[in-house]
Design a protein that fits this description.
The protein is of the alpha/beta class and 271 residues long. It has three domains: 3-56; 64-111, no CATH class; 120-270, 2-Layer Sandwich (Endonuclease, Chain A). It has helices at 3-24, 30-42, 45-55, 61-64, 66-71, 73-87, 91-97, 101-111, 127-139, 156-170, 193-197, 263-270; strands spanning 120-124, 144-149, 174-180, 201-205, 225-228, 232-236, 257-261. Strands 1-7-6-5-2-3-4 form a seven-stranded mixed β-sheet, with helices on both faces. Helix 10 links the parallel strand 2 and strand 3. It is globular and about 75 Å long.
């Protein structure tokens, strides 16, 4: 065997060991494991390693999310209690959930979904209706407005959102807005200046030193959430932009949103 062949074999074995560690040392979703195995089989190993270095999960992830894990301790405790009640087929759960007990058990085991049974739910799949409800709920806030959004456009809807949040902040309502640094990279830096001056708080999720170049492209915050006073929550696929009403360059647009009143709203806040 030639020296070059020995070097290649050595690199191959070491790269394989590294990829095995990447895939199996920390818990991952099954789909993620399949993707890494496929990449290992189909692509040159050096490309797989380069991809992980530049586009894999952030090396400082443990540090970044340390505070969140501490705050999640109470949620984990409640999840364990609910799992126990479902396993034991607690009478109160069976009576309230009826034929949905198995569905609840599946969701709590696979998605850590907390169970609440005091909710009113409204489904929306049309943009104009969604934004009408969104702004109405913000205007009703008395204590706090907490919002996460992937994309906010610098258009009439984005400006209206900034205005409505600023109005609530001036009224003394706690306003917190988390935007994704990639999804909102086209927004002017002063877009939320009035909101911040009014006492509102804004932040970008995983920003980059260079605004137009962000290597953590696959570690983004795609959540579109609104929680008002811990009593009402919206979980949706709608970003804030005129195209989501069907009047933009993409033409007719359909997306989904669920408006929740009750215990489900505070679970959005907790997570």
């Amino acid at each position: 065997m030639l020296f070059g062949d020995l070097i290649s074999l050595f690199l191959y074995i070491n790269a394989a060991i590294i990829i095995v560690v990447i895939v199996f040392v920390k818990p991952r979703r099954v789909t993620s494991i399949y993707l890494w195995i496929a990449a290992f089989l189909l692509l040159p190993l050096i490309f797989v390693l380069i991809f992980y270095i530049f586009f894999g999960r952030d090396y400082h992830r443990q540090k970044l999310f340390k505070n969140k894990w501490v705050k999640d301790a109470n949620v984990v405790k409640l999840l364990r209690e609910q799992r126990k009640n479902l396993v034991l087929a607690s009478e109160s759960y069976v009576k309230s959930l009826h034929e949905n007990v198995e569905l609840a058990r599946m969701l709590i085991n696979t998605n850590n979904s907390l169970i609440t049974m005091d909710n009113e739910v409204r489904y929306i799949n049309e943009g104009d209706e969604f934004f009408k409800v969104l702004f109405e709920e913000i205007s009703k806030a008395k204590r706090f407005v907490h919002m996460e959004m992937y994309i906010i456009r610098n258009d009439e809807l984005g400006k209206k959102l900034a205005h409505e949040l600023t109005v609530k902040a001036k009224e003394g309502v706690e306003v917190k807005l988390l935007c994704d640094a990639v999804g909102c990279h086209k927004l002017p830096r002063r877009f939320f200046k009035e909101l911040r001056e009014a006492g509102g708080k804004t932040a970008e999720y995983l920003p980059s030193w260079i605004r137009w170049i962000n290597p953590r492209i696959n570690n983004r915050n795609h959540r579109k959430l609104l929680i008002v006073d811990g009593e009402m929550g919206i979980c949706s696929g709608f970003n804030v932009g005129i195209e989501y009403t069907g009047r933009g360059r993409f033409g007719p647009w359909r997306d989904d949103a669920v408006v929740m009143r009750g215990g489900a709203a505070i679970t959005l806040e907790a997570r």
